[in-house]
Amino acid sequence: MKVLVAMSGGVDSSVAAAELVNQGHHVVGVTLRLWGGESDTGCCSVSDVDDARRVAQQLNIDHLVFNFSDDFNKHVVAPYVQAHVDGITPNPCIECNRHIKFDRLSERARILGFDAVATGHHAQITRATQGTYRLTRGHDELKDQSYVVYMLDQAELAYTMFPVGHLTKAQVRDRAVALGLRTATKPDSQDVCFISRTGGREVFLGNRIEFRRADVVTTDGAQAGSVDALELVTIGQRKGLGLPGGGPKQYVVDVDTPNARVVIGNEDQLLRTGLAVRNVTWANQAPSCGEKVLVQCSAHGAALPATVRCLDPLVLRFDAAQRRIAPGQSVVCYDITNSFVLGGGIADAAEPLTI
Amino acid sequence: MDAKINQLIDKNNLSDFVYLDHAASTPMRAQAIEAMAPFMDNVYANPSGSHRFARIARKAIDEARDDVAEALGCKPGEVVFTSGGTEGDNATIFGAIRRKGGIAVCSVAEHHAVLHCVEILNGRTVQVDATGVIDVKALESLLQDPQISGQVNVVSVMAVNNEVGSISPLRRVAKVVRANAPTAVLHTDAVQATCWQDLREISPLVDVLTVSAHKFGGPKGMGITMQRIGLDIQPLLVGGGQERDRRSGTHNVGGIVATAAALRATDQSRLTEVVRVTKLRDALVDSVLSELDDVIETVPRENRVPGIAHLCIAGCESEAVLFLLDEAMICASAASACASGAMEPSHVLSAMGVDPKYSLGSLRMSLGHTTTSRDIDRATTALVSAIRQLRRTKVAVR
C-alpha cells in the first residue's frame, strides 16, 4: 500500500514510519506545519521538522512538509481562545485530530492517491466479527490514546493505520534504539503545542482577549473572594480563587460567564450523576438507550460505568456520582469490557434536566 | 562524493528529472566549474598574502572583477564580491540607514531579503499593481509626503519579481526617486534579471545593484554588489577590509572566479537564450491553457522575463500540485518556502490582489540554460494530468 505517515519528529511517529517500511509499504513521511506563531514547546518548530526529516532520510523514504497553519488557526486556535471567553474548557489536541490530522490531512492523502494515512498514536484499529472497524485501546494501558482519536468513524478508520498501537512505549523506544533513530530518547510532548512553556496559557490568552475580573460567590450567593481572569477558571478548580485559608475544601462548581461570577461549593456540591454531551459521533452504530457503557472524560482518566439515558441529545447517568465534568471536555464512551471506543462528544454547559 | 549521497542520486535517477526550478537555482555552467577547480585544489593561497603564491590568486580575482565590471557596465572598483543576493540586499539597506538614519522604502512585492530589512527598520512599503509591478505614482506620492519628505535615505525596487517574473519600470522609478529624494540611495535587487536582461542598461539607473551567482550558473554562496564609489553605506561585515573596506572576509577565490566565468557565459549567450527560452516558455503555457479550464497566466507575457511561467490553478492547492509533479519527476515551485520547508502563502500574489481561489493553486515553473523542448513536453503532460487528477478526486472526496 501507499501510506502517508504523519511524522511529528517524535519517537512514536518515527517508529510508526519504520514499522510501515518494514511491512513493505510504499511510505512517504509528512510533517505538518500548523503554528506560525512563537512557541517554545518545540512542536511545529524547525528542529522537530529536522528530526522528522532526518528519520525519514535514515529510513530512505521521501519526506514532505504541508502547511496547514490557516486551518489550524481556524479550527483549533481561534476556537480555543473563544472557548475561554465562553467559559468552556477546550481540548485543542482533540480538535486538531478532528479537523487537521483526520480531516484535512486524510483528504489531502486521498486526493494525492494514497491508500492510507498513518500516525504514531497509541491506539489500535481492529475488525469486529461482522467486519466493521473498531477503534481499540492501545496495547500500552498507560500510553493509550484512543480517547484523543475517538471521532474516527468507519470511513476514517478504514483509511487510518496506527502502526505502534500494538506496542508498549518501552517497545517503541527499543525499536527506535535498535534502528539507531535520532528520536529514540526524545521526551514525549506534554503541552499544548502553540502555547509557550514560559508564558503559559495566561500570557497566550492575555495577548488575545481582555480578561474579566469576577466575584467568587458561594452557592448561596455570598461574596467569598475574587479572581482577575474569569476566563482562566475551570470547574473543579480549588486554587487561585482569592479565598482565605482554613475551613472545608472549596471547589469551583460553576462558572457563570454572563454574570461574571465564579460559584464555589464543597465537594458534594460538585458531584453529578447526569452528563449531557453534544456534537456526538459514533465509531459504528450508536448504543441503545439503557445500554451500559464506560465513560472516560480526560486523556488518562478512569473509565467509569454509566448508562445511556437518551441519545439525542446524548445523556449519560453515572452509576456513582462524579465530580462535574467541565463543559468543553471530551466525553468518550467505551464498551463495557473497556476495550474499544463506541463514540463520544463534548460535555455540554447545560446540565441534563432529567436523568 | 559521499557514498550515501551517490546512492540517493542513483535511487532518484537524477538524470531523468525535468528541472523547471531555475529561478531557485540553475545548474552551474561548465565554464564556471572548470574555472573554479584549481582554486579548490592546488591554488589555495590567501589572495591577501604577500608572496608569489598569493599573487596568483590575487590576479585571478582582479581579472574576475574586470570581467564582472564589463558585464555590469560599471567600473571594476564598483564591484564588491559577497556571499549572495541576501547579503547584498541586507548590507545596502541596513548600511544606508545605519550610516545616515532616515527611512527605508521598498515595494511590497520585494524578495524577503529586502522586505524584512525595511520592516525591521520600520520603513515604508509601496503598493504594486495587478501584475506585481511597483505603482510609481504611489512611490512619488510617498516621497512627496510632507511627513517623510527629505528623510528617505534608501529606496529599493527589484528589477524582476522572483515569483511571477514581472519587470519593474526602473527608468521611471529612478526618475521619481532622483527628483523627489535626491540624496537617497537607489538600490535594485537584480537577482532574477541577470539571465534575461542586459545589466548594462540597468546599472546606470541605480546606485547599488545586487545579483546572486547561483541564479546564472555560478556557485551558491556567491554574489556581486555593484556599489557606486563614495556611497555612504556602513559595511555589514567588518574585519580585514578585503573588498576595499566595503566588505570584509577572506576572498572566496574559487567562487569569485567561477562567478565571473558564469556571468561572462550568461552575458554572451543572453540574446539567443532570450529568444530560445521565450519560445519554450510560451509553448508550455499555451499548451497547458489550451488543455485546461480555469487556469490563469498570472502576469502578461509582454512585461515578464522569459524564464518564468507562473500559473494560478483554480480548484487545486500548490502543495498537492507540487507533490504530483514531483512524483512525475518534474521539479517546480510555488511561493517561497520557509525554514521548515513548508509553503508559505505568497505575499506577492496577495499584494497583487489575486483571488484566493486562484492564488491557492499558484505554480512557478522556471526555465533556464539547460531546458529543452523535451522537458517542456514532459512537464506539460505531467501538469495537465496532475491537475485533472486533483480536480477529479477533489470532487469524489468531498
Please tell me about this protein's structure.
The complex is a heterodimer of chains A (355) and B (398). Chain A is α/β, with parallel strands linked by helices. Chain A is built from 8 helices and 17 strands. Chain A folds into 3 domains: 2-179, HUPs (Rossmann fold); 210-265, Roll (SH3 type barrels), CATH 2.30.30; 270-347, Elongation Factor Tu (Ef-tu), domain 3 (Beta Barrel). In chain A, 26% of the residues lie in helices and 29% in strands. In chain A, helix 1 packs parallel to helix 2 (46-59) and helix 3 runs antiparallel to helix 4. Chain A starts with a strand and ends in an 8-residue tail after the last strand. Chain B has 398 residues and is an alpha/beta fold. In chain B, the strands form 3 sheets. Chain B has a 7-stranded mixed sheet with strand order 2-8-7-6-5-3-4, sandwiched between helices. In chain B, helix 3 runs parallel beside helix 9 (253-291), helix 6 packs parallel to helix 7 (170-180) and helix 10 (318-327) packs across helix 13 (373-397). Chain B is globular, with a radius of gyration of 22 Å. Chain A binds chain B through residues 31, 33, 44, 46, 49, 53, 60, 64-67, 69-70, 107-108, 110-113, and chain B through 11, 317, 319-320, 323-324, 338-345, 389-390, 393-394, 397.
